[in-house]
Amino acid sequence: MSPSRRALAVSLLLLACLPFAAVADDHPGVEAFADKVAREKGIPRQQVLDILSGAKTRQDILDAISRPAEAKPWYQYRPIFLTPERIGKGIAFWDEHEKTLARAAEKYGVDPSVIVAILGVETHYGEITGRYRVLDALATLAFHYPPRESFFQGELEEYLVLGREEHLPLDETMGSYAGAMGFGQFIPSSYREYAVDFDGDGQRNLWSVDDAIGSVANYFARHGWERGGPVAVRAKAAPSARPPEDAGLKPEFTLAEMARRGFSPERKVDAGEPVTLVTLEQPDGPEYWLGFENFYVISRYNHSPLYAMAVHQLGRAIEEARDYQAADAAK
């Protein structure tokens, strides 16, 4: 067992006995963290310690982060999000907030269907924004999850600053097990960097639907969303097809290179667009897609090809169903 895995196992064993221990009481790194925040962010050391004295170390948070949905195969992951209920609620959300979505699309160049799908996947259009205190989630992961301890200490630091900037009640704000917040589930660093005041009330509030829509659109625009560009297309695989071993989420292959490997798009696409090969697990074998730059941009929200494909397919399903309803009503 590697040292990091051994440390995690010991941490989990101890926390199983004390699932709601106070973070400030059971980890020596808290004081060093408070010193760092005071030095780098100007938040008084004692204030940081006082805030963390109310944080609880929760075993259920460590359990949740150890079994993410993205660990499932595609054929089990897709049905979580591509449901008639979620599509129907997506249409209703789009209809209700059509003007705001159109304004965001105009300003940031991001398709409304993608914005709606993100909010649908993340929080069921704002219905489920998280059942954990963000303070507990970030503190638990910052001091008791060795594989990503440094990352979550950084997010905890960002959360403390965010509280000062946006006047968030740090001990009351609720979010996901990873400390993500609001309709679009932004972690603190993303909140600070990409959230926008889209309703003009002087505050960036991700529990405001207008701010959430504008913030998701801004996030995608800042990550390079190509206005009107393709996202993904299903690929046919020849019997002798050879997937590239180094295919990541970033599109770095030409269609000609993919053709030489035995993969071709099922519909005509711009031959000049770089692509990557996305392999999705089905019960009867792999399913292949070619992902474009916009697919990669979706994956910046969650670095999983399953997540990006679920967002893409949900957005398409909502848009197509909404267009069908409109055409049917016009008859």
Describe the structure using short key phrases.
331 residues, alpha+beta, Helicase, Ruva Protein, domain 3, Lysozyme, four-stranded antiparallel sheet
Description:
This protein has helices spanning 3-17, 23-26, 29-41, 45-53, 59-65, 74-81, 84-96, 98-108, 112-123, 134-144, 149-166, 188-194, 209-222, 255-260, 293-299, 305-330; strands at residues 20-22, 56-58, 132-133, 174-175, 232-237, 263-265, 276-282, 285-291. The protein has 331 residues and is of the alpha+beta class. Among the domains are: 3-67 and 130-194, Helicase, Ruva Protein, domain 3 (Orthogonal Bundle); 232-321, Lysozyme. Helix 8 (98-108) packs parallel to helix 13 and helix 10 packs antiparallel against helix 11.
The CATH architecture designation of the domain at 3-67 and 130-194 is Orthogonal Bundle
Query: What low-confidence regions span 5 or more consecutive residues with pLDDT below 50?
Result: 1-18
Adjacency order of strands in the biggest sheet: 6-5-8-7
Radius of gyration: 22 Å
